[in-house]
Amino acid sequence: METVLASPNREVVIGPDRPFVIVGERINPTGRRAFAERISGGDLEPVREEALAQVRAGAPVLDVNAGIPGADEVDLLVRMVKLVAETVDVPLCIDSSTDAALEAALAVYEGKALVNSVTGEEDKLERILPLVKRHGAAVIGMANDERGPLPDPAERLAVARKIVQRAADHGIPAEDVLIDPLAMTVGADPDAGRVVLETMRLVREELGVNLICGASNVSFGMPGRAELTATFVAMGRMVGLTSAIANPLSREMRMATLGSDVLLGIDRYAATWLRTLRAEQAAGAEG
Amino acid sequence: MDEKLEALREALYALDGQTATAISTELIEAGVEPQRVLQEGLAEAMLEIGRRWNAGEVFLPEVVAAAEIFKQCQAIVEPALLASGGQTLGHRVVMATVKGDLHDLGKNMVGAMMKTAGFEVHDLGKDVPADRIVEAVRELEPTIVGLSALLTTTVPEQRGVIQALEEAGLRRAVKVMVGGAPVTEDWAKQIGADGYAPNAPEAVRVALELAGSERPTG
């Protein structure tokens, strides 16, 4: 199954036989106090910088999040989305827990965006899905609901199934639903990795939809974060992960995803891998 | 005895649960004041582990494992504490991670430290809707309610809970403390919270300060 996202001039396809898609995570004030202070003070330059840096690093899609406690999220998200769309020509993943902010940002975005996100909660499904349909967007469905985090992969699959069905009821095809199997922090729960990987496998086998996840969460509080996150993404790919919200500036992440493209025969004759490494070598020789 | 307390702390640093629980049992059976085991053994070790975490010297799995051992030891000490009439403060605290948020590590840590400091802690868990928090405040009449939120998307829910308390006419009956990684002092002021703390030891200090100005509950 293939999900197509689009900016005004560019299409990005997510699918099991396509290059792995990194959705750049860095336009997000969470846990970044300096970034949050500047943008809530009206200085959006850091947003522009992060957009450029991530696209230069190869991110085909960018996540945009304006969640700052106390800030006017509707206004801020709209301004950030406009600025990012002016700066780079890649599809956007519009990330908010506020309906009004999602609605306003979707209204100003020219393209087929990815909405981040809906859950299996009744009220969320009924509020977010009509919005997704109206704007012709795709949506991330998180495999949890009012019960909180589900420890059993089969329960997470059931929530994913419900989201895909309810999306269909609203006229949104399964191609436009990406399931997020919920990557929890492995440093806090030794079983977190096994549970999320097993959920991916079940979702792929039964629903066949594309999978995405916030990969960096896995490695919170650990040394060797970049390596651990990249290892997780490479393992996830074998059980159905086709995209991840992650840090494209991490070389470990880029190499893990490009390497998996080579190893699965998606990057034919390693063309992208070779081009990337030659460019690195050339840059190294210059520097 | 001081060596035993030292050994208890060392066992926590080494993440040696067996030794830590054995020493806790031994100390209690030897008649050592449970308050001392809690404060000078367990709480002091957790403070030190918190310091090492902030300094980047230990990592999350180690903090989680230590917290687990702390809990096991606390369970050994608690009956003795209650039997001795306890040196409880007579102040009740209700804690919760707000709705939509599944992060409870920080809240659990604060809860454990509050308990050690003598508060009676009622933990409502994670992903707790505002109406359940309001209900708990009505039923338990705590001195303090502590609200944790770890996501920028769930932090606004802290304001939601404060509003729900106002609507229920309970806002003035309880002190509200807020915390969590994205939470700032400014945010706490903006939503009209009574207290904010960036970490567990500070949370205990602020709680003691807030409780100091209030009559004990129940």
Estimated structural class of chain B: alpha/beta
| CATH top level class name of chain A | Alpha Beta
Helix content range of chain B: 55-70%
The strands making up the biggest β-sheet of chain A line up spatially as: 8-7-6-5-4-3-9
The portion of residues assigned to helices of chain A is: 40-55%
Topology order of chain A in helix (H) and strand (E) letters? EEEHHEHEHEHEHEHHEHH
CATH topology of the largest domain in chain B: Rossmann fold
- The arrangement of helices and strands of chain B along the chain is HHHHEHEHEHEHEH
* Shape category of chain A: globular
Percent of residues in β-strands of chain B: 5-15%
Radius of gyration of chain A: 18 Å
Q: Could you list the spans of chain A in which at least 5 consecutive residues all have pLDDT below 50?
A: none
Which key terms come to mind for this protein?
heterodimer; A: 287 residues; alpha/beta; TIM Barrel; two-stranded antiparallel ribbon; 10 helices; 46% helix; globular; B: alpha/beta; Methyltransferase, Methionine Synthase (B12-binding Domains), Chain A, domain 1; 10% strand
Question: Can I get a quick summary?
Answer:
Chain A is built from 10 helices and 9 strands. Chain A has 287 residues and is an alpha/beta fold. The mean pLDDT of chain A is 95.
Describe the structure.
The complex is a heterodimer of chains A (287) and B (218). Chain A is of the alpha/beta class. Chain A contains ten helices and nine strands. Chain A has one domain: TIM Barrel, CATH 3.20.20. In chain A, strands 8-7-6-5-4-3-9 form a seven-stranded parallel beta sheet, with helices on one face. In chain A, helix 3 runs parallel beside helix 4, helix 7 packs parallel to helix 8 and helix 8 runs parallel beside helix 9. The N and C termini of chain A lie far apart (43 Å). The model of chain A has no long low-confidence stretch (mean pLDDT 95). At the A-B interface, loops of A face helix 4 and helix 8 of B.
